[in-house]
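User: I'm curious whether this sequence folds into something compact or stays loose and floppy. Could you predict its structure so I can see for myself?
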Amino acid sequence: MRPAARRAWSCVKLAAPWALAALVLALVARQARTVDWPTVWQALQAQSPGRLAAAATLALVSYGLYASFDLVGRRLTGHRLSVTRTLGTAAISYAFNLNFGAWVGGLGLRLRLYMRWGLPAPTVAQIIAHSMVTNWLGYLWVAGAVLVWAPPPLPDAWALIEAALRAIGMAMIAAAPAYLALCRFSRRRRLRLRGHTLKLASGRLAAWQAAAGGANWLLMGVIVWGLLGGRVDYPAVLGALLLAAVAGVVTHVPANLGVLEAVFVASLGGRLPTAELLAAVLAYRVAYYLLPLALALPAYLLSEAAARRSGQAA
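Assistant: Here's the prediction. I'll summarize afterward.
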């Protein structure tokens, strides 16, 4: 590639995420101006206590499942931190990650908590890396399955686009068996990516990663689907949730605030009244973001106090 073309491509790669972020945020602002918020509040109040309790319970189950991703790193690094402390650290970090962004919860807080318990930074890096692999490996095959078997409805004139989406979906699904094959058959048990080394899981552990990562995304979809009263097909709800997750990564908006709501309205607005959609998404935000954070904050303070008492304070 010529120097001028290389520079142009670098500019495109730099500008593309910002352009997409601006587009998503513009969509958020546009949707917010047109929403009848009193009606949304009425729809939110109409949610039954049983439905809200089920959503909160499933959210806590999802947090437990996500926290178990850190057990992969525990197995591969051989660190001696107990399963209970590993799960607690991961769950606290996940709540902070969702509400305050990846740098605060996913990286900074998790690094601090694990190092409080005596783990060295390279070990923590391996734990975080395997948690991310588990999460996004599950995302790839679940999102791929949605694109292949339940793609979003498109006009007949967009047949080529639908075919392209199915092809992309097949490629995403293929990521899971490709990773399993790499872990099962690779003679080199370490993978180097951009100067970083990742220890490969066994074939059985890799299969668990794919299953657990996918199950968590499916469970998150069930929570939103339940809050919508099952009035929208589950694959459509799951697809909107998966799209919102990517939009949140691109925009870097803490707690995916506004982005989650805008994507759901844009994706499912023709199937339910906007007020009812937003009420369900706001209830999901309470169950999946705010309730776990309310539990994680005191748990974090207790963890800090316990670390100080054990003489491992930084």
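Summary: The chain has a mean pLDDT of 86. The first strand starts at residue 190 and ends at 193.
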